Amino acid sequence: MAKFNFKKGDTVEIIAGDDKGTKATVLAVMPKKGKVIVEGCKIAKKTVKPTEENPKGGFMNKEMPIDVSNVRKVEA
């Protein structure tokens, strides 16, 4: 398990991928997988089954994990 310099709430910049150059905050850190979830980056459209709260179901936008090597910490 690698130790990295990110924690929830830090400001980071995406340095590779479709969202390159985007600055946002870290929502979650997954040290065992070597990934982080960044607010508003790498959005995927997921299908949601109908439930009591959402009787029609449909689609939901969700942030997906980004590899740590594609993220750089930015001083606030």
Q: Would you kindly provide a written description of the structure presented here, covering whatever features stand out?
A:
The protein is mostly beta strands and 76 residues long. The protein has one domain (11-73): SH3 type barrels (Roll), CATH 2.30.30. The chain is built from no helices and seven strands. The protein has a five-stranded antiparallel β-sheet, with no helix packed on it. It has a two-stranded antiparallel sheet with strand order 4-5.
How many DSSP helices? 0
Q: Provide the CATH top-level class.
A: Mainly Beta
Question: How much of the residues is beta strand, in percent?
Answer: 35-45%
Number of strands: 7
User: What summary fits the major beta sheet?
Assistant: 5 strands, antiparallel
Overall radius of gyration: 15 Å
What is the CATH topology? Answer: SH3 type barrels
The overall number of domains is 1
Query: Could you give the order of the helices and strands?
Result: EEEEEEE
Helix content: under 10%
The CATH level-2 architecture is identified as Roll
The general outline is: elongated
Strand order of the largest sheet: 6-3-2-1-7
Q: What class would the helix/strand composition place it in? A: mainly beta
Low-confidence stretches: none
The span between the termini is 27 Å
Roughly what is the average pLDDT, rounded to an integer?
Answer: 91
Overview in brief:
The protein is mainly β.
Q: Topology, please?
A:
Elements: E1 11-14, E2 23-30, E3 35-38, E4 43-48, E5 58-63, E6 66-67, E7 71-73
Antiparallel strand pairs: 1-2, 1-7, 2-3, 3-6, 4-5
